[in-house]
Design goal:
CYTH domain-containing protein, Hypothetical Protein Pfu-838710-001, CYTH-like_dom_sf, mainly beta, 13% helix, CYTH_domain, eight-stranded antiparallel β-barrel
Protein backbone atom coordinates (compact mmCIF):
# COMPACT_ATOMS: atom_id res chain seq x y z
CA UNK A 1 0.00 0.00 0.00
CA UNK A 2 1.19 3.54 -0.70
CA UNK A 3 2.70 5.21 2.33
CA UNK A 4 2.63 8.95 2.95
CA UNK A 5 5.68 10.11 4.93
CA UNK A 6 5.60 13.80 5.76
CA UNK A 7 6.43 16.49 8.28
CA UNK A 8 4.20 19.53 8.80
CA UNK A 9 5.04 22.97 10.16
CA UNK A 10 3.34 26.28 10.78
CA UNK A 11 4.57 28.94 8.39
CA UNK A 12 6.47 31.92 9.78
CA UNK A 13 4.54 35.18 9.13
CA UNK A 14 5.72 37.17 6.12
CA UNK A 15 6.02 36.81 2.39
CA UNK A 16 6.03 33.40 0.79
CA UNK A 17 9.32 32.26 -0.73
CA UNK A 18 9.40 32.00 -4.55
CA UNK A 19 6.97 29.33 -5.74
CA UNK A 20 6.96 27.05 -8.76
CA UNK A 21 3.24 26.18 -8.89
CA UNK A 22 -0.10 27.23 -7.40
CA UNK A 23 -3.06 24.88 -6.97
CA UNK A 24 -6.51 25.69 -5.56
CA UNK A 25 -7.83 22.91 -3.32
CA UNK A 26 -11.38 22.11 -2.18
CA UNK A 27 -11.46 19.29 0.34
CA UNK A 28 -14.39 17.65 2.12
CA UNK A 29 -14.64 14.66 4.41
CA UNK A 30 -17.15 11.86 3.92
CA UNK A 31 -16.07 9.92 7.01
CA UNK A 32 -13.57 10.20 9.85
CA UNK A 33 -13.13 7.59 12.58
CA UNK A 34 -11.51 7.62 16.01
CA UNK A 35 -9.17 4.92 14.70
CA UNK A 36 -7.57 7.42 12.31
CA UNK A 37 -9.37 6.48 9.09
CA UNK A 38 -10.49 9.35 6.87
CA UNK A 39 -12.35 9.26 3.58
CA UNK A 40 -12.16 12.54 1.69
CA UNK A 41 -13.06 14.17 -1.57
CA UNK A 42 -10.59 16.56 -3.07
CA UNK A 43 -10.54 18.79 -6.10
CA UNK A 44 -6.99 19.98 -6.63
CA UNK A 45 -6.10 22.06 -9.67
CA UNK A 46 -9.24 20.76 -11.41
CA UNK A 47 -8.55 17.07 -10.76
CA UNK A 48 -11.06 15.18 -8.57
CA UNK A 49 -10.05 12.30 -6.29
CA UNK A 50 -11.50 10.11 -3.58
CA UNK A 51 -8.85 9.50 -0.94
CA UNK A 52 -8.55 7.20 2.04
CA UNK A 53 -5.93 7.66 4.73
CA UNK A 54 -5.31 5.35 7.65
CA UNK A 55 -3.11 5.82 10.67
CA UNK A 56 -2.96 8.04 13.72
CA UNK A 57 -0.39 10.43 12.38
CA UNK A 58 3.20 10.90 13.17
CA UNK A 59 5.51 10.58 10.19
CA UNK A 60 3.68 7.91 8.15
CA UNK A 61 0.19 6.90 7.15
CA UNK A 62 -1.29 4.70 4.45
CA UNK A 63 -2.84 6.79 1.67
CA UNK A 64 -4.77 5.60 -1.39
CA UNK A 65 -6.33 7.96 -3.94
CA UNK A 66 -8.69 7.07 -6.79
CA UNK A 67 -9.60 9.46 -9.60
CA UNK A 68 -13.21 10.65 -9.89
CA UNK A 69 -15.04 12.28 -12.76
CA UNK A 70 -16.42 15.77 -12.18
CA UNK A 71 -19.93 14.26 -12.11
CA UNK A 72 -18.94 11.71 -9.44
CA UNK A 73 -17.33 14.46 -7.35
CA UNK A 74 -20.41 16.69 -7.63
CA UNK A 75 -22.68 13.77 -6.68
CA UNK A 76 -20.68 13.06 -3.49
CA UNK A 77 -19.78 16.65 -2.52
CA UNK A 78 -23.08 17.43 -0.69
CA UNK A 79 -22.31 14.57 1.74
CA UNK A 80 -19.31 16.58 3.02
CA UNK A 81 -21.40 19.57 4.21
CA UNK A 82 -20.01 20.89 7.50
CA UNK A 83 -16.69 19.06 6.96
CA UNK A 84 -14.92 21.13 4.30
CA UNK A 85 -11.95 23.38 3.83
CA UNK A 86 -10.54 25.52 1.05
CA UNK A 87 -6.89 26.38 0.60
CA UNK A 88 -4.34 27.36 -2.00
CA UNK A 89 -1.21 25.23 -2.28
CA UNK A 90 2.08 26.75 -3.36
CA UNK A 91 5.01 24.51 -4.33
CA UNK A 92 8.35 25.79 -3.07
CA UNK A 93 11.71 24.14 -3.82
CA UNK A 94 13.66 23.26 -0.65
CA UNK A 95 17.02 21.77 -1.48
CA UNK A 96 16.23 18.55 -3.43
CA UNK A 97 12.61 18.44 -2.17
CA UNK A 98 9.39 20.34 -2.72
CA UNK A 99 7.59 21.99 0.18
CA UNK A 100 3.82 22.40 -0.08
CA UNK A 101 2.72 25.69 1.46
CA UNK A 102 -1.02 25.73 2.22
CA UNK A 103 -2.75 29.07 2.70
CA UNK A 104 -6.22 28.44 4.10
CA UNK A 105 -9.33 30.48 3.26
CA UNK A 106 -12.80 31.23 4.63
CA UNK A 107 -13.25 30.07 8.25
CA UNK A 108 -9.58 29.04 8.40
CA UNK A 109 -8.18 32.32 7.01
CA UNK A 110 -4.92 33.21 8.72
CA UNK A 111 -3.67 29.64 8.96
CA UNK A 112 -0.62 28.88 6.83
CA UNK A 113 1.19 25.56 6.98
CA UNK A 114 4.01 23.89 5.11
CA UNK A 115 4.43 20.14 4.50
CA UNK A 116 7.31 18.17 3.06
CA UNK A 117 6.94 14.58 1.85
CA UNK A 118 9.81 12.12 2.02
CA UNK A 119 10.75 8.77 0.49
CA UNK A 120 11.69 7.24 3.85
CA UNK A 121 11.16 7.89 7.55
CA UNK A 122 14.95 8.19 7.97
CA UNK A 123 14.99 11.01 5.40
CA UNK A 124 12.11 12.69 7.22
CA UNK A 125 13.90 12.52 10.56
CA UNK A 126 17.16 13.81 9.03
CA UNK A 127 15.48 16.85 7.42
CA UNK A 128 16.49 20.23 8.82
CA UNK A 129 13.79 22.79 8.04
CA UNK A 130 14.79 26.17 6.60
CA UNK A 131 14.41 29.33 8.68
CA UNK A 132 11.10 30.31 7.03
CA UNK A 133 9.42 27.22 8.50
CA UNK A 134 7.82 27.79 11.89
CA UNK A 135 6.97 25.41 14.73
CA UNK A 136 6.65 21.75 13.81
CA UNK A 137 3.08 20.42 14.05
CA UNK A 138 3.61 16.90 12.65
CA UNK A 139 1.12 14.67 14.44
CA UNK A 140 -0.52 17.54 16.38
CA UNK A 141 -4.20 16.64 16.42
CA UNK A 142 -5.56 20.21 16.22
CA UNK A 143 -3.77 20.84 12.93
CA UNK A 144 -4.98 17.76 11.06
CA UNK A 145 -7.02 18.83 8.03
CA UNK A 146 -9.87 16.47 8.92
CA UNK A 147 -10.27 18.26 12.27
CA UNK A 148 -9.74 21.75 10.86
CA UNK A 149 -12.59 21.06 8.43
CA UNK A 150 -14.96 20.28 11.32
CA UNK A 151 -13.67 22.18 14.35
CA UNK A 152 -12.05 25.23 12.73
CA UNK A 153 -8.91 27.00 13.88
CA UNK A 154 -7.15 25.85 17.04
CA UNK A 155 -7.73 28.24 19.97
CA UNK A 156 -4.13 29.46 19.81
CA UNK A 157 -4.84 31.05 16.41
CA UNK A 158 -8.13 32.80 17.30
Amino acid sequence: MPLEIERKFLLVPGELPPTTATEPIEQGYLAVTEEGVEVRLRRIAGQCVLGVKHGHGGLSRTEVECPLTDAEFEELWPATAGRRLVKTRYSVPVRDLVASVDVYAHELAGLRTVEVEFATEDAARAFTPPDWFGAEITGVREYKNRLLAVEGLPEVLH
